[in-house]
């Protein structure tokens, strides 16, 4: 029997004897094939994946050598299939892989929990936990490991939490203590784990041990983080030991590090039912909120909390007080009222895409609109009404079927809410303006809990501010947009043209002169990037750094050849990938290349001209893209968008040019520092060549000066509208407009 261990120290063993260990290539190869079951990988792809920096002939030689070694190690056990130059994994009963065993046991445990079968839950949870012996593989593997290490770790701690509760409930106190202790071993600095152990001791009636666990928690936090236990931890101890001694010990020497205390009732133990449903006892006021919602409320100790708080940018790690996945407008009103009345921070999540992670906030109530995604098209009126939590893929799906579209962005996975409220720059901007220029009306829940409609007739100042002012003014429950006819019944001609990176300066100079001369039916953004190593790109270009322009032509097809001729004919492109396709297909083309959960750090500026000085900086930093996902894009804001006066909507940068964004991206958290440093350094050198402000949807949390610079002369008016509609700044987890002082 072969066993492949990837959780903890990597090993390939047969009947307990090591065949290979540590970071050996053989284990990496085998793991890659095992973790991608059912696929057949061309040899060249495998070589490119494992030796990305090595010239292809040498990489192929390396691959041949390692496959040979692998076959030697596997001996008689036939697990690799090869045909037509492709290598595939043939799963065999004779091979056990701990990651897969872990995942299967965890799945079984969750199913048992859902069926309220505590005994089966505990068995499967413990079987899963037995497989987990530490971190999943070193950092450099994680770009092809489907489950990021943090996620598996979170799944383990969540299983521990639930198992400890279930074991306590079924009277198996000692086993509960073991699981709670194990949880602390996995994440010693997570206070929630320490709370679990304290609870388990209290449930056994062992106050001295609970106090001991509290002291140990306090020591670790003090030593490693320089903070004291949170109020909740002390409250837990006080509630479990309501005599003077417990009180004194829990308070001795420790000061609060923030967060209000809501002492739990009874022993402070939650039933398994409570944990997997919604409300936890320690946050008593939430019980009322949960009862008033048709949607769900997820609290920190609930199963699913970690999934609920995760946003698109894997770098963001915030712990909200609660996440309400709302069902309808009434739920939103309930949440807004609850946050205001309890002085809680309030964050609003549309698609969760903003890189700054403003959709979630520590200790806040998050209104997650992800279940409100319906659309209603009126083809005769050329309008589409869209729920506040929809993604652009939902809107494209609804409108392109009728040969129409609303200007959005350059991908489909972003939320409508954040993108539309910040401005909205995309393929259709030159021809039909920004997304906000196509906004006809919005339904908004205001800070005082009232629901209003804003359009050219009602709440006109609010309507002005919503068109670029972000989520500052309330929760938009639905948007009504104009739809525009595009292409031949929704079919456009689009795709990338790639040039060698060495040609980037020449291509950029040509592009900046060409774009203003093109008809507005044709638009294209320019970028520096690495050609993705996979279909549909030709294999010989995989992993090659390039300068690329992605074009989109939405005019009549019978003149397309003529319009596109200058774009096809220039220079010596590596690839001309222009083809007829549905507009929605172009919108979705890049989504699979950038799945949720990667590390993102980006910096941005508006650019009035692509100057020679800027091109020199681009050329240098394009040559040092730190990872295959990192990139730089310049998105045109010209044509129809530039004809709208700067004060007609809150979006101020109207005088032509581009929104530029430098993006460091990588799946591996270990590379977070490298991508951030590269982005900052690139930005610092480029910034002097730019217009000053930035598109708020591309900004990190960069402070008031940057926000003011982005709204220019419109800021003061925005501040006055803010003072009228949200004077207490309830909606402040955004690129915040500070309410004007009245008087
Ligand atoms: C891969 C990628 C590609 C992108 N491409 C483009 C592009 O081509 N063009 C472009 O213009 N932008 C683009 N963006 C930026 C995008 O516009 C922002 O990330 C935008 O905030 C995403 O909207 P969201 O609803 O997903 O945001 P979230 O992260 O959910 O929210 C962002 C902000 O908007 C607020 N908000 C969201 N929904 C509502 C609502 N219904 N009511 C009130 N406030 C709300 C939130 O409170 C928060 O402050 C891209 C982003 C990514 C990550």
State the gist of this model.
The protein is an alpha+beta fold and 743 residues long.
Molecular structure report:
The N and C termini lie far apart (80 Å). With 743 residues, the chain is α+β, with helices and mostly antiparallel strands. It has 27 helices and 26 strands. Strands 19, 20, 21, 22, 23, 24, 25 and 26 form an eight-stranded antiparallel beta sheet that branches. α5 runs antiparallel to α6 (149-169) and α10 (231-240) runs antiparallel to α11 (244-251). Bound molecules: flavin-adenine dinucleotide (FAD). The site of flavin-adenine dinucleotide has 34 residues, from β10, α17 and β17.
Supply database-style keywords.
alpha+beta; 743 residues; binds flavin-adenine dinucleotide; five-stranded antiparallel β-sheet; 18% strand
Detail the topology: elements first, then pairings.
Layout: E1 2-5, E2 11-14, E3 17-21, H1 25-35, E4 40-42, H2 43-50, H3 56-74, E5 80-83, E6 86-89, E7 95-97, H4 98-114, H5 118-131, H6 149-169, H7 173-186, H8 191-203, H9 207-225, H10 231-240, H11 244-251, H12 272-276, H13 285-292, E8 296-298, H14 305-309, E9 322-325, H15 329-341, E10 345-349, E11 364-368, E12 375-378, E13 383-387, H16 392-400, E14 404-405, H17 416-422, H18 429-432, E15 439-445, E16 451-455, H19 460-466, E17 475-482, E18 484-485, E19 491-500, H20 504-514, E20 522-530, E21 545-553, H21 560-569, E22 575-576, E23 579-582, H22 583-588, E24 599-607, H23 612-622, E25 631-636, H24 640-643, E26 658-666, H25 672-686, H26 704-711, H27 715-725
Parallel strand pairs: 1-7, 9-11, 10-11
Antiparallel strand pairs: 1-2, 2-3, 4-6, 5-6, 8-9, 12-13, 13-17, 14-18, 15-16, 15-17, 19-21, 19-22, 19-23, 20-21, 20-25, 24-26, 25-26
Bound molecules: flavin-adenine dinucleotide.
Flavin-adenine dinucleotide binds at residues 312, 348-355, 358-359, 369, 388, 409-411, 414-415, 417-419, 421-422, 424-426, 470-471, 475-476, 594, 697, 733-734.
């Amino acid at each position: 029997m072969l066993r492949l261990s990837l959780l903890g120290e990597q090993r390939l063993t047969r009947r307990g004897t090591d065949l290979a260990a540590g970071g050996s290539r053989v284990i990496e190869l085998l793991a890659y094939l095992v973790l991608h079951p059912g696929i057949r990988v061309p040899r060249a792809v495998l070589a490119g994946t494992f030796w990305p920096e090595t010239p292809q002939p040498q990489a192929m030689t390396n691959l041949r050598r390692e496959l040979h070694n692998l076959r030697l190690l596997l001996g008689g056990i036939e697990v690799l299939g090869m045909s037509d130059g492709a290598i595939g994994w043939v799963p065999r009963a004779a091979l056990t892989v701990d990651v897969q065993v872990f995942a299967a046991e965890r799945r079984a445990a969750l199913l048992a929990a859902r069926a309220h079968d505590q005994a089966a839950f505990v068995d499967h949870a413990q079987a899963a936990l037995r497989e987990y012996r530490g971190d999943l593989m070193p950092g450099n593997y994680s770009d092809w490991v489907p489950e990021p290490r943090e996620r598996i770790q979170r799944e383990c701690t969540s299983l521990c939490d639930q198992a400890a509760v279930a074991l306590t409930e079924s009277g198996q106190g000692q086993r509960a203590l073991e699981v709670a202790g194990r949880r602390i071993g996995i994440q010693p600095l997570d206070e929630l784990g320490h709370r679990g152990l304290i609870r388990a001791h209290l449930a056994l009636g062992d106050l001295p041990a609970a106090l001991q666990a509290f002291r140990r928690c306090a020591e670790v936090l003090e030593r490693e983080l320089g903070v004291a236990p949170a109020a909740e931890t002390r409250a837990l101890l006080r509630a479990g030991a309501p005599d003077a001694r417990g009180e004194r010990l829990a308070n001795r020497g420790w000061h609060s590090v923030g967060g209000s205390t809501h002492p739990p009732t009874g022993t402070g133990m939650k039933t398994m039912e409570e944990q997997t449903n919604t409300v936890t006892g320690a946050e008593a006021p939430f019980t009322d909120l949960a009862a008033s919602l048709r949607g769900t409320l997820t609290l920190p100790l609930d199963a699913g909390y970690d999934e609920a708080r995760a946003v698109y940018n894997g770098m963001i790690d915030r712990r909200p007080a609660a996440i309400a996945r709302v069902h309808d407008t009434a739920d939103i009103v309930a949440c807004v009222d609850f946050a205001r009345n309890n002085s809680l921070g309030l964050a609003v999540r549309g698609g969760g895409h903003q890189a700054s992670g403003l959709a979630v906030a520590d200790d806040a109530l998050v209104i997650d609109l992800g279940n409100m995604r319906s659309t209603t098209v009126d083809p005769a009126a050329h309008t589409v009404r869209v729920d506040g939590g929809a993604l652009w893929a939902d809107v494209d799906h609804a409108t392109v079927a009728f040969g129409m579209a609303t200007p959005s962005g350059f991908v489909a996975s972003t939320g409508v809410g954040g993108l539309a409220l910040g401005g909205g720059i995309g393929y259709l901007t030159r021809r039909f303006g920004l997304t906000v220029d196509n906004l006809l009306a919005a339904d908004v829940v205001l800070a005082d809990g009232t629901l209003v409609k804003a359009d050219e007739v009602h709440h006109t100042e609010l309507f002005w501010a919503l068109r670029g002012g972000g989520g500052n003014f309330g929760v938009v429950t639905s948007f009504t947009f104009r739809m525009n006819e595009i292409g031949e019944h929704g079919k456009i001609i689009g795709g990338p043209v790639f040039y060698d990176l060495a040609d980037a300066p020449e291509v950029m100079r040509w592009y900046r002169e060409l774009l203003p001369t093109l008809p507005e039916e044709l638009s294209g953004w320019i970028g520096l990037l690495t050609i993705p190593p996979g279909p549909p790109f030709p294999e010989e270009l995989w992993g090659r750094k390039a300068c690329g322009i992605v074009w989109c032509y939405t005019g009549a097809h019978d003149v397309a050849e003529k319009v596109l001729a200058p774009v096809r004919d220039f220079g010596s492109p590596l690839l001309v990938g222009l083809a007829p396709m549905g507009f929605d297909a172009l919108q979705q083309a890049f989504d699979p290349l950038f799945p949720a959960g990667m590390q993102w750090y980006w910096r941005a500026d508006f650019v009035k001209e692509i100057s020679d000085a800027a091109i020199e900086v681009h050329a240098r930093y394009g040559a040092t893209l730190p990872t295959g996902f990192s990139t730089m894009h310049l998105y045109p804001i010209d044509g129809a968008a530039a004809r709208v006066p700067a004060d007609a909507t809150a979006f101020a940068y109207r005088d032509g040019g581009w929104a530029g964004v430098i993006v460091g991206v990588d799946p591996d958290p270990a590379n977070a520092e490298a991508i951030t440093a590269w982005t900052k350094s690139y930005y610092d050198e480029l910034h002097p060549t730019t217009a000053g402000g930035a598109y708020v949807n591309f900004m990190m949390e960069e402070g008031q000066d940057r926000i003011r610079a982005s709204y220019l002369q419109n800021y003061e008016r925005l501040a006055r509208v803010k003072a009228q509609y949200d004077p207490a700044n309830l909606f402040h987890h955004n690129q915040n407009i500070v309410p004007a002082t009245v008087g």
